[in-house]
Amino acid sequence: MRTHKGRWTEAEILDQTGRKALITGANSGIGYEVSRILAHHGAAVVLACRDERKAAAAQASIQAHAPRVEIDTVQLDLASLASIRRAAARLRADHPRFDLVIHNAGLMRLRRELTEDGFERTFATNYLGPFLLTGLLFDQIATVPASRIVTVSSTAHRFVRLDFDDLHGRHGYRPLRAYARSKLALLLSTYTLQRRLAAIGAPTAAVAAHPGNCRTAFGDELHPLIRAAASPRLNWLRLFQDPLMGALAVLRAAVDPAARGGNYYGPAGIAQFTGFPECLHSSAGSHDRAAQERLWSQSEHLTGVRYPGNGG
After folding, report:
1. Catalytic choice (32, 179, 191, 307)
2. Using CA atoms, how far apart are residues 47 and 183, in angstroms rounded to an integer?
3. Is 179 a residue of the active site?
4. Which of 7, 19, 160, 282 has its CA at 20 to 30 Å from residue 168's CA atom?
5. How many Å apart are CA 192 and CA 227, to the nearest integer?
């Protein structure tokens, strides 16, 4: 696809009328921008959010800009297996198909916390929750022509490896490491999912993206020096960008006709911090087949969901 001056922008998005997208963490930041832009281009969107009040406010805001588009919300706490199952049941009843499922929601906790299911909260929210949700909605996605499942990872994945004996951070919890491991897990799982989809002949592509460094509410959890560097007054450093720019990588993974299963999109600037999205290479560790299969097996065990097919 030709882009303006070699840059992939919102102008490249084709008409999305007739398509339906589910976006997690859609009430603010990158998730909100992705939802707003997809609706602007005609897609019906479902905003999956933990806070129902914030979801309603986002729904009203998007509806005001796209009054003819269907906008729905569903309450979803990705740290709770019970919440995910309730949300999936409602989604299956109300929405027989999804063209796009975008796993955008994410968090990082400065101190180790356990969920009601006994999982470390960052790993549960960022990784196990999306794994279960996709599995529960598999039939609503994997039968839809040209459908895509998009996972939002991070450049932080490059600096860690999974500790399969301590996925829940019982020994020496460090917030940035826990976050990075959850984002590596997303990539390992995405590549495995793509093989499984191909093995059963599904018309669905599993694609990954990362938004670079963005000024969002997520930054509230970061060190004060990092928050200071994210100030708009320091734009000239090109260390952070606004959520709209970060959303472009996710949107390209979701709607670029040239995207293929297993692709990974992100900003092409220095250190992949900022810039317009391009197809990039994730770390060698994210392509470790043994780690992919081991994680997949443990994920099915922890969540109780079983996917069809095999890893090929």
Report:
1. 179
2. 22
3. yes
4. 282
5. 35
278 forms beta bridges with 266
Per-residue tokens: 62 = 């998007």
Phi-psi region of 116 (alpha: psi -120 to 50; beta: other; left: phi over 0): alpha
Strand partners, 277: 267
> How do 71-75 and 147-152 pair as beta strands?
unpaired
SS3 call for 73:
strand
Q: What is the pLDDT along the chain (312 residues), one digit of tens a residue?
A: 334 456 999 999 999 999 999 999 999 999 999 999 999 999 999 999 999 999 999 999 999 999 999 999 999 999 999 999 999 999 999 999 999 999 999 999 999 999 999 999 999 999 999 999 999 999 999 999 999 999 999 999 999 999 999 999 999 999 999 999 999 999 999 999 999 999 999 999 999 999 988 765 554 455 443 433 334 444 434 557 888 999 999 999 999 999 999 999 999 878 778 889 999 999 999 999 999 999 999 999 999 999 987 765
Nearest Cα neighbor of 293 from 179, 153, 160, 191 is: 191
Retrieve residue 23's tokens.
Answer: 């976006």
Per-residue burial over 71-80, b = 16 or more CB atoms within 10 Å of its CB, e = otherwise? bbbbebbbbb
Distance between CA atoms of 222 and 191, rounded to whole angstroms?
A: 29
Token pair of 14 as six digits: 């084709």
pTM: 0.91
Q: At what angle do helices 243-255 and 29-40 cross, to 10 degrees?
A: 50
**Residue carrying structure tokens 């720019």:** 245
Q: What is the DSSP string of 231-276?
A: SGGGGGG-S-B-HHHHHHHHHHHHH-TT--TT-EEEE-SGGGSSSS
